[in-house]
Design brief:
Blueprint (H helix, E strand, L loop, with lengths): L5 E5 L5 E6 H6 L4 E12 L2 E9 L10 E2 L2 E3 L7 H13 L6 E11 L5 E12 L12 E8 H10 L8 H9 L1
Parallel strand pairs: 3-8
Antiparallel strand pairs: 1-2, 3-4, 3-6, 4-5, 4-9, 7-8
Amino acid sequence: MMSPEYVILVDANDNEIGIEEKLLAHQQAKLHRAFSVFIIRYQSNRLQILLQQRQTNKYHSAGLWTNTCCSHPMPGESTLVAGQRRLKEEMGISAELTEIGAFKYRAEVGHQLIEHEYDHVLVGTFNGEHIPFNQEEVADVRWVDVDCLKEDLRLHPEKYTAWFMQALDLITS
């Protein structure tokens, strides 16, 4: 049996105020620290973002498209270290990450779970073609041109995770 995962509870200014079991934090809509990693590259002078489709067995937002990877730092772990760890675990790649901003959001994500996160947006570059992603975590990956992505988001927001548009805005503003 797996031991429970814990998230870092924070106040409205991202100050740590405790820890909570991950599922309980999502059931009770407790504000907690999270991160969203965006891996980018330039192809023919056009910005592209590596997206992942969440595996269909995820506990929320299953099958939806989103940024390269996202998760929560473990208690005592920095957000950047956590981002690099999860990038390797989910996508099988490594990149140096830089934080470019953060935002708070609250969204019902199905199964009576609520994401209430202080989300740190991390960016890195990767120019390789092969993405050896973890098929237990990720259903599919694709590089997408930002302009095409924004148009698809406008036309089909239901295909994307609740946090994705806000995080993307930090990347493209």
